[in-house]
Amino acid sequence: MTGADAQAGAAQDLWADAMLAAALLAVDPGLGGVAIRAGPGPTRDAWLSGFRALHTVDTPWRRMPPGIGDDRLLGGLDLAAALGAGQRVLQRGVLAEADGGVVIAPMAERMATATAARLAAAIEDGGVRVERDGVAERLPTRFVLVALDEGLEDELPPEALMERLAFRIALDSVGHRDALPISATPDDIAEARAALAEVAPPGEDAIHAICSAAEALGVWSLRAPRLALRTAAALAALEGRDVIERDDLSNAARLVLSPRATRIPAPPEAEPDTAEAQPEADDADTPQDPETGGEDDGPDDTDRGQGALDDIVLEAARAALPESLEDLWLATGAVSRAAPARSGASGARLPAARRGRRIGTRPGQPDGSAGLDLVETLKAAAPWQRLRGKQTGSAGSLRVRRDDFRIRRFEQRSESTVIFVVDASGSAALQRLAETKGAVELLLAEAYVRRTQVALIAFRGEGADLLLPPTRSLARARRQLAELAGGGATPLAAGLETAAMLGVAERAKGRTPLLVFMTDGRGNIALDGGAFRTRAEQDALNACRRIRSAGLRAALIDISARPRGEGARLAEAMGATFAALPYVEAGRVRDVVRSLED
Amino acid sequence: MRVVFPFSAIVGQSDMKQALLLAAVDRTLGGVMVFGDRGSGKTTAVRGLAALLPALPVIAGCRFNCEPDRPSPACDGVCKHAGVGTTPSPVVDMPLGATEDRVVGALDLERALTLGEKAFEPGLLARANRGFLYIDEINLLEDHLVDLLLDVAQSGENVVEREGLSVRHPARFVLVGSGNPEEGELRPQLLDRFGLSVEVRTPDTLAERVEVVKRRDAFDRDPEGFSKAWKSKDATIRRKVAAAQNRLDAIVVPDAVLEMGSRLCMAVGADGLRGELTLLRASRARAALDGRDAVTEADLRQIAPMALRHRLRRGPLDEQASTVRIERAMDELLAA
């Protein structure tokens, strides 16, 4: 077989599994759903239309836009109906509307963690809890979620959601020629559903085989084996059987467990001899070896039959894995999020900077920046309707007055990066640095609340260094700052330029940069490193103007014992807040930063 | 009402189960925060807890679960003349995406629209009064709701000033939160509010894992049947909780143990007095659950990690070090 043939064969296998997953989800929506990793295109479309063809025409089918709000997702008050009927009328959200059907989530890799948590709760509970706008209700809903993941390597849909979807399928390597339609019809599915109800529960040996395969693959969450067993039952039903067979378990392991693997187990025949010496080698039990069979000290008897079944199921899952660990991690995303030991990069993925979040309403007049909150306005007007009706003598129409108006309040939630730029030159440097460290730590300790990052640039000698790249980690900052030293000449212009560059870069990431300079404003090294005071001052002023024209927010803290006006002049040139603090104190510095943030 | 997975059928997770039971015995403990892996049964345990709580005596039909002889001012007319009744101890779930009006209560829109009346419609905080308030994924809760909860939890009272309403009613509840720190940090002020914090992990022995999956599968297939099979075990726990509640006030705390608690807090540098108080109360609750009359050093030792771990000053990076520090301090103190 040529390489090209092998590739085509692999693509066909992938596609076959993708369509098998589609059929299984149609048979048992309790499998949660599927994450499809593929760019938009004919292959993905072929899967979606193939999936749709398995459902009857009246099956609810909802698309969930990436930035969906809670009112549409979960539901809430139907205001128009409420006003008309004089009673609360619940407006269902997308999740409740999709009961018995399918929810498609495009661009799932960009989905906010909070949205994922709401979806996960609905999948888990089989319902949506609505506690919104005066409406309290639980709406039952069972839907299949199709998460369309168009992300690159390091972008994945939130794990809380992925966890609850039985299948993960990568279609990127499948060409649309391989994407053949499947022949099943909604009638076939209905038949399989009827068969599913008859499938006998998995026996202890089946549960053991799936659990031990999951363990060998490093799949820790216990939802995965549960979904695999459910998949095995659906596979049996698809073939009209009422018993889960060995192949069902093997296929289920391949479909559900392999894509979640975080490690590659050794093939069973690889170490038959060493297994004897190490009775704990539970990944590589051989059926011939009675020594290694029963080491789990579990209640179940692990005789030869069990060992053999375990091996068969694990082998099926293993065969679907890439050859190297590196490829595996590439295929399944960052391993650190799946592994139980949280080593390496912390998995904390923050949602992208948000535009500001509604935090309520207040009385006031709507204008360009503050929109009218219709519901709240009408709620404010509601209690007075009868009275006002009597006064005007007219009936029927709604009487809303100016002081009923409620406008939305938004919280400014652009997350900020405070960039400290410290003059580390001269003799006072050490103490200044110590105080600056204090301020950095103070801000970081409070940064949880404000979601602030802190960076530190120091300039001394011939140039400026980024000593602490933007971070929220107090521990990291402490480590980095411990090694900071001071002394030497004052390359002020370089400090200003470096800060401006970092500021612009941070803004490009969607954060709000705040520049805080701590200097006496007396630079003596020019940008090119030359020690000419006049040119140094000119360079510094030019850098300040650039900061101003870039629209970066800044503060300059003059730390000289007797300010002579250089600092104030620089501050003016960059449009910065100015403060003179001859004795730098962490608390005062923090206050300056606070005033910048507000 | 939906059938929930029985508490007694949860495999392993002894720390989490114990913390929840301690909070059920002594509600002044300050609640429980459960951190942990996905799929490790956090939500299952909290939901299962409801079945273990003894019924509450209340003013019949009271919207705030007021105690029979202590109606709140907000009960005006509605509750005063009603008789005495009981209600199952509330375990109220606060879903993500709940709006503020449903949490604190708000103007009853329906009555306003139809009758032109200003009436207060109680929210989730009212329903949770004298019971448990559970927030899953509490680290994803919106900040303004967190602020609100902190305020109410502090004062034990919910003050509503909105839409021309002015209402205050008691809102004393045991706050139970769960979350996965990988999805976002918990605000330190909020974390500090919790009396106990426990960490749950997915079981790591194969036998345990098989048992978890087996029971869950059995439950999914036949929730009623499964629950019935575990009913008597749940009932045993419920009796233990009720008995422990009754004997709680009679538990003796020897001076030596008190002193040991203070020394432990000082040794590990736990912030504030709340740590000491929680340590003491939780130890007492443990002794009560155990059917004993006095707190021992063993109680203290066992409780210390969950009572103090989240109160140590530490950098965000040394997550696991806290438990180790507490255990080491305990060893040193006991050896001395």
Architecture overview:
The complex is a heterodimer of chains A (598) and B (336). Chain A is of the alpha/beta class. Chain A has 24 helices and 17 strands. In chain A, the strands form 5 sheets. In chain A, strands 14-13-12-15-16-17 form a 6-stranded mixed sheet, with helices on both faces. In chain A, helix 9 (204-216) packs across helix 14. Chain B has 13 helices and 11 strands. In chain B, the strands form 4 sheets. Chain B has a 5-stranded parallel sheet. Chain B has a two-stranded antiparallel ribbon with strand order 2-3. Chain B starts with 13 loop residues before the first helix and ends with a helix. At the A-B interface, helix 6, strand 6, helix 9, helix 10 and strand 10 of A face helix 3, strand 5, helix 4 and helix 8 of B.
What percentage of residues of chain A falls in helices of 4 or more residues?
Answer: 40-55%
End-to-end separation of chain A: 67 Å
The strand order across the widest sheet of chain A is: 14-13-12-15-16-17
Low-confidence stretches of chain A: 270-302, 333-357
Rg of chain B (C-alpha, Å): 21 Å
Number of helices of chain A: 24
**How many angstroms does the end-to-end distance of chain B come to?**
54 Å
Record field, number of beta strands of chain A: 17
Q: Report the largest inter-chain contact.
A: A-B, 79 and 70 residues
Q: What topology, given as strand order, has the largest sheet of chain B?
A: 4-7-10-1-11
Strand content of chain B: 5-15%
Oligomer: heterodimer
Gyration radius of chain A, rounded: 32 Å
In sequence order, what are the helices and strands of chain B, one letter per element?
Answer: HEHEEEHEHEHEHEEEHEHHHHHH
The proportion of residues in beta strands of chain A is 15-25%
How would you briefly describe this protein structure?
The complex is a heterodimer of chains A (598) and B (336). Chain A has 598 residues and is α/β, with parallel strands linked by helices.
